[in-house]
Automatic annotation (TrEMBL):
This is ROK family transcriptional regulator. Coiled coil: none annotated. It holds the Pfam family HTH_IclR. Belongs to the ROK (NagC/XylR) family. The lineage of its organism: Bacteria, Bacillati, Actinomycetota, Actinomycetes, Micromonosporales. Residues 34-63 form the HTH iclR-type domain.
């Protein structure tokens, strides 16, 4: 029994050492054995064993040498990009956006095309085809993909395998519907709320870098919020944190008498793209087909459009006032077709209105710099972090 325990302890230490060496190599990009020993605190012989094992497993590779003291040369190592692949997907109402990245995060293939999500099987077939096309561009197969990350509207119920609160994806609210995603790319997949992923994208590549407490608020076809608390994504008890479409904002608006309002929620009914158009038309701007039309008309000086935008500013300001009172974020990043409007029409008026609605200084409010790529970039960020753990786990399991 003592021998078994010792062997088990040795195995655990070996895996921990390899993870430490792999993580530091990834962080530094190109590194020598002496540098790894210094950075990790491990002995040079221990680092050497870890490097040998990781290289043998195909996770690291030598990329030359660097001259050291007394004329000695040290071998340099880096993460082998082809050791893992991440397939990222943003399933939107109108478009699907997909990308394929290697293990160091280089996007090797990318495609956007109109969504065929009116029927679940059509969407699955479309995503399967796209996964195959991107894999072929990279010189691999769909089975070679380490992890797929799907960003979708709504909430993934892991107990039932259904998507809740995703009316734009008909049929996905049925039990086991999410399991259809398993065969699209590889065998391992993750389903995340799209706005949560957008928040991760902002934290990794956008305005949220270095900001510990911020929220990403998407106002477009629908509304939603991703919450970063102390640098980590907050999902809530049921994964429903951030479903701000159901905030009681907009009470008294005639739009709330429409049948769809109960299903979409009060705030989403009055602040989403459809809500903006419906409001403008009710006020008399009958030629507005999109929310962009309304904002463009307001910028051009149309008084009816200006009144409609003023109502939207009021709804958004009250929603952000409630969010600020509860979460106290340092930054609010606005995204989505409505939320991304230029600052003179939305951001600046909302910031000014907030000063009257909150007691303390309100958070900074800025428009996302990632645009329509926020969800996809968040999916890549989540996928890359998990894929690196997966390749390490798989390498340890076969030894």
């Amino acid at each position: 029994m003592e021998t078994t325990g010792t062997a088990s302890t040795t195995s655990v230490l070996r895996v921990m050492n390899e993870r430490a060496v792999f993580a530091e190599t990834f962080r530094l990009g190109t590194v020598s054995r002496p540098e790894l020993a210094q950075r990790t605190g491990l002995s040079k012989p221990t680092v050497a064993v870890a490097l040998t094992n990781l290289e043998r497993a195909g996770l690291l590779r030598q990329v030359g040498t660097r001259a050291g003291a007394a004329g000695r040369s040290a071998a340099l190592y880096e993460v082998r990009p082809e050791a893992g692949w991440v397939f990222a997907v943003d399933v939107g109402r109108s478009y699907v956006r997909v990308g394929l990245a290697d293990l160091v995060g280089t996007v090797v293939a990318r495609k956007d095309e109109p969504s065929r999500g009116t029927r679940a099987r059509d969407l699955v077939a479309q995503l399967t085809r796209l996964a195959g096309e991107l894999a072929a561009e990279a010189g691999i197969t769909r089975d070679d993909i380490t992890l797929a990350v799907f960003g979708t509207p709504g909430i993934h119920d892991k107990a039932t395998g259904a998507l809740h609160l995703a009316p734009n994806l008909p049929g996905w609210d049925r039990r086991g519907s999410v399991e259809r995603l398993a065969g699209i790319a590889g065998s391992t997949y993750v389903v995340e709320n799209d706005v949560d992923l957008a928040a991760v994208g902002e934290a990794t590549y956008g305005l949220g870098r270095g900001v510990r407490h911020f929220v990403y608020v998407s106002i477009g076809t629908g509304t939603g919020m991703g919450i970063m608390i102390d640098g980590k994504l907050y999902r809530g008890f049921r994964g429903a944190a951030g479903e701000i479409g159901y905030l009681p904002v907009g009470e008294g608006d005639p739009l709330l008498d429409e049948p769809a309002a109960r299903r979409r929620g009060m705030f989403e009914s009055v602040a989403s793209a459809d809500g903006v158009v419906a409001l403008a038309r009710r006020l008399g701007l009958h030629d507005a087909a999109t929310a962009k039309d309304v904002f463009d008309a307001a910028r051009a000086g149309d008084e009816t459009a200006r009144l409609a935008v003023s109502r939207v500013v009021d709804h958004v300001s009250h929603a952000l006032a409630g969010i600020t009172a509860v979460l106290d974020p340092e930054l609010v990043v606005l995204g989505g077709g409505v939320g991304s409007q230029p600052g003179d029409l939305l951001t600046a008026p909302v910031a000014e209105r907030l000063r009257d609605l909150v007691v303390l200084r309100p958070p900074r409010i800025e428009v996302s710099t990632l645009g329509t790529d926020a969800v996809l970039l968040g999916a890549l960020a989540v996928g890359l972090a998990e894929a690196r753990d997966l390749v390490l786990d798989r390498a340890a399991a076969i030894r």
